[in-house]
Amino acid sequence: MEDEVQIKLFFWIGTFVMVFLAVGIILISVIYKARVDRLNRKKSESLLKASLDSEKRERQRIASDLHDGLSGDLSAVKNFIALLNNKEEDYSKKEILQEVSTVLTHALSNVQNISYNLMPPLLESYGLVPTLKSYFDRIKKSNNITIKQHYFSDVIEIPSSEAYEIYRIVQELTTNMIKHGNSQQISISITLDQNTLLFEITDDGAAFDFNEKLQSSLGMGLKNISSRIKHIDAKLLQQSVSIGNKFQIILNSDNYVKSSNNR
Amino acid sequence: MELFINITLYSGIIPLIILLFKRIALNFKEPIVPFIWVTAIASVYEIVGTGFMQINTSYWFQIYSFLEIIGLYYFFSKLFKGRYKTVINIFFIFLLAVFCCSLFLWKDNGSLQAHSINKSALTFSVLIACCFWFRDLFKNIEVEENLWNLSTFYFISAVILYYSSTLLLFSLGNIVYSDIYLYDYWWINVFATLILRMFLIIGTWKMKSK
Asked: What is the mean pLDDT of chain A?
């Protein structure tokens, strides 16, 4: 009888211990795996940040080298050509020098464009809105499209690193809209709702599903947008519209957004 | 209690229904598929054979033990894709040997002893195989894959929980309890079976469709 009680006790304790061990193993694996995944994610996020930062630095360096170095040299050559042209009396030589000058002007303009695309000079000194305005002015000149712009303020003081990423995202989206979607009209608006900055970009071109294209596309454009969005901790939403596309970028701006309206 | 038992009984068919909906019920490339069939067959037999037709459970216990060995052997051998092949095969031979021995202990008016040794041997083998799976998981911990989205995780959790909680019930059952008193403790098996089947349902739900 006593043995039976002991065996029953052993049965209950044993069963409890076995269940406890099984649940323990499962929980430990889940918790440990989640922790490792979290660490991996943090590692890849910091790698992404480092690579985007170094890309930005490198763009800045190349842009300033082009602007201060090559662009300056080309301007100097152009001046020398102008001097030569003034002194030259032979008409055929003057014509050639005129040709050289035209080619140099074209090259200078190309270098300035490349330099601007690499790193818009306005971004650091004047901020996001003037940079976007200048960017859209250039787009309007080279493409026959209408661009509507609405900014809640001309001064949006967000860190230059975030302004840079936003600028790149807008640049990539609008380039895609023009290049692949054949858009005729693009609208951009920036609004501030409490502490949230909302960037809305719409067009009337060919519609596409951002997430679907992101999975299937071999190009880097959409992947870069996605990386930059992650980098600045923003959200990219695609709203369904009857014609074209509508993208929203939501950026939490708790502590740093000041607009001229608020001053 | 009857409702609880009925839920447990019927829940065994759900994983197969999910597989049928996902059109992978006959895709035997998926390691778990034979075991899901065994579970569904067991459910149907227990509802019809044992419940309605009142057929002696002794026959079924013995047949089920054999089907269970085959289903789990298939699951683990496919799951490890050739790894631990020797160990898994040794376990399989060991389980078949134990099953053959259990045939000598089987009686049509009491299969508890045969059932006990089959279950004990199977529990031992399954727990070792699960340890291999967890060892592999920790070895490849760098691979980013959410465990909650991994159907295999649910299947492994299902078998590890079921066999751990019923180990002593089946191994000591024959020593301590007579067939009459055993039913006082049978709810442990019912509860463990319910957990097993719930995890199988979630696991099959998480499986990718064809």
From this structure: 85
Domain boundary among the residues A118, A139, A160 is at A118
Q: What is the DSSP secondary-structure string of A231-254?
A: HTT-EEEEE--SSSEEEEEEEE-T
Nearest chain A residue to B167, by CA? A15
As given in the structure block, the two tokens for residue A259 are: 């607009």
C-alpha distances out from residue B43 to B14, B18, B35, B127, Å: 10, 15, 12, 24
Contacting residues of A for B137, CB less than 8 Å apart: 29, 33
Of A4, A11, A30, Cβ closest to residue B147 = A30
Is residue A259 domain-resident?
A: no
CATH assignment at residue A188: 3.30.565.10
3-state class percentages of chain A: helix first, strand second, coil last, to nearest 5? 65, 15, 20
Report field, pTM of the whole predicted structure over 0.90: no
A2 CA to chain B: closest CA distance, Å? 12
Contact A18 B157 (CB under 8 A): no
CB-based contact A249:A234 (threshold 8 Å): yes
**Are A245 and A207 within 8 A, CB to CB?**
yes
Domain positions in chain B are 2-206
**A199 Ramachandran zone, left/alpha/beta (phi>0; psi -120 to 50):** beta
Instruction: Express each pLDDT in B21-31 by its tens digit.
Output: 999 989 888 99
CB-based contact A182:A220 (threshold 8 Å): no
Q: Give the distance, in angstroms, between the CA of residue B206 and the centroid of all CA atoms in the same chain.
A: 19
ipTM over 0.85: no
Neighbour order of strands in the sheet with A146-151: A146-151, A185-193, A196-203, A245-252, A235-239
Structural domains of chain A, count: 2
Domain containing A176 equals 122-252
Per-window interface: B 91-130 vs A, CB < 8 A: none
